[in-house]
Amino acid sequence: MQPIELLCPVWPAPANVVAGITTRVGGISQAPYAGLNLGQHVGDDPLCVASNRAQLEAYCRSDLCSNDNTNPEKPSQRWHWLNQTHSTHVATCATLPATDAGSPTEADAAISNEPHNVCVVLTADCLPILLCDRQGTRVGIIHAGWRGLVDGVVDNTITALCAATQQQSSRRPNELFAWLGPAIGPRKFIVGDDVRQRAAAYFSKTGTTFDLAPNALDTAFATAPDDSPEAVSSTAANTGKYLADIYQLATLALYRNGLKHIYGGGFCTTTDQQRFFSYRRDGVTGRMASFILLNDAVS
């Protein structure tokens, strides 16, 4: 079995925050899911997916979360694999059973303020957003496709994270860090005008920490060339095509919720076939996992 290859966020997270993003390197799945497919819902052999997940969980526990690989007293981890539906629902991991104890919870984001609960989402073009606070007491993760972004999944997750602390001084969004993982790049994400209009309606709403400048959304949508392929759309009819920058959309959503410390971005799952699965490139394909946890309580 080929070793796992992980991306590790470069951000100023506290030492007890452990996070990673898988690539397609590793695992035992066969084409078109080769190799480390972690999605159970894509048509892969369930035994291969189970083996791949076990490989990731073992690697996280033995290599990422302790320097003492011989210690039998390491606490067990609870991995929470969600049933993602492009919703705005946020799950609190401490209240959930481990995935193998029942059906996965339907949610597109998860938070935890207890050690050893692993928040995890699956992607293959959508954007994973990792979150933690500067004190190392809370973590969260978001599966952010364009639908979730414009429906408010970022807003709901930030609200939940800020509520997950007893310290009033820690409830400010500017105490949070965000890292944007691998997603479809702005040169490949073609959408219809209906998507742009829904984004405009979302960003025009008031009630968040910061309102954006009137032209801020222009930085996230560029007019697509006339020879662009069919646009991704929420309706059958399109009156225009745009190149959408999901990284910029997520940055604007985080900023309007009060986050100032935003890192990552700059990937493209569609063009980097060696490292990443891409649904829009391949159709039938696997899924990467992005995960984050508190390894230990703050001492």
Characterise this structure.
The chain is α+β, with helices and mostly antiparallel strands. The chain has a single domain, classed as CNF1/YfiH-like putative cysteine hydrolases, CATH 3.60.140.10. The protein has helices spanning 46-64, 146-151, 153-163, 193-203, 246-256, 279-282, and strands at residues 6-7, 17-22, 78-81, 90-92, 109-112, 117-123, 127-133, 139-144, 176-180, 190-192, 221-223, 241-244, 261-264, 288-294. The radius of gyration is 19 Å and the shape is globular. The two termini are 38 Å apart. The model has no long low-confidence stretch (mean pLDDT 89).
CATH architecture: 4-Layer Sandwich
Global structural class: alpha+beta
Which percent range fits the helix content?
Answer: 10-25%
Largest sheet: 6 strands, mixed
Adjacency order of strands in the biggest sheet: 4-5-8-7-9-13
Point out poorly predicted stretches.
none
Radius of gyration: 19 Å
Which class in CATH terms? Alpha Beta
Distance between termini? 38 Å
β-strand number:
14
CATH topology: CNF1/YfiH-like putative cysteine hydrolases
Specify the overall morphology: globular
The number of helices is 6
